[in-house]
Amino acid sequence: MKRPLHFALALCLSAAAASSAWAAAELTGCAAKRESIRSELRDARQMGNTNKVEGLSRALDELNANCRDDRLVQRHNEKVIKAQARVNQTERSLRLAQEANKEPKKIAKLEGKLEKARAELTALQAKQP
Fold first, then answer.
1. At 66, which helix (H) or strand (E)?
2. Rounded to an integer, what distance in angstroms lies between the CA atom of residue 12 and that of residue 71?
3. pLDDT tens figures, 115-128
4. For residue 39, what are the contacts with CB-CB under 8 A and spacing of at least 6?
């Protein structure tokens, strides 16, 4: 008798988590952050974790008071610019090393560094603030 009840409860919780995750994926900026914190807050309350509830409540209050979508966009754009600068610098270092016929080990290290910098830039460009 208890097993179907536990299964139904688990199914309901899974559906609620999936729907809130889906809703958060549709949101961007401050609204997405707000929904994420609210979802964690609901989970913490259900688990009876009072310390986490207090911390998340504080975080939600600060988010409501300070989060502005235009600031998020500005910070995101600054991160993209810095990442692009890292890619440019690493490309330059690699080119200079190749022109100076540096050791293959040094060139391979710079190629790895360039690949990582490009991956970070691509991830930032794909991510919406």
1. helix 50-66
2. 37
3. 999 999 999 999 87
4. 17, 20, 21, 24
Helix axes 104-126, 69-99, angle to 10 degrees: 160
29, 129 contact by CB (below 8 A): yes
Regarding pTM above 0.85, the answer is: no
Amino acid at position 111, single letter: E
Tell me the Ramachandran region of residue 127: left when phi exceeds 0, alpha when psi lies from -120 to 50, beta otherwise. beta
Check if the beta carbon of residue 24 is closer than 8 Å to that of residue 35. Answer: yes
pLDDT in tens, 25-35: 577 788 989 99
Q: Are 68 and 30 in contact (CB under 8 A)?
A: yes
**In whole angstroms, what is the distance from residue 21 CA to residue 5 CA?**
24
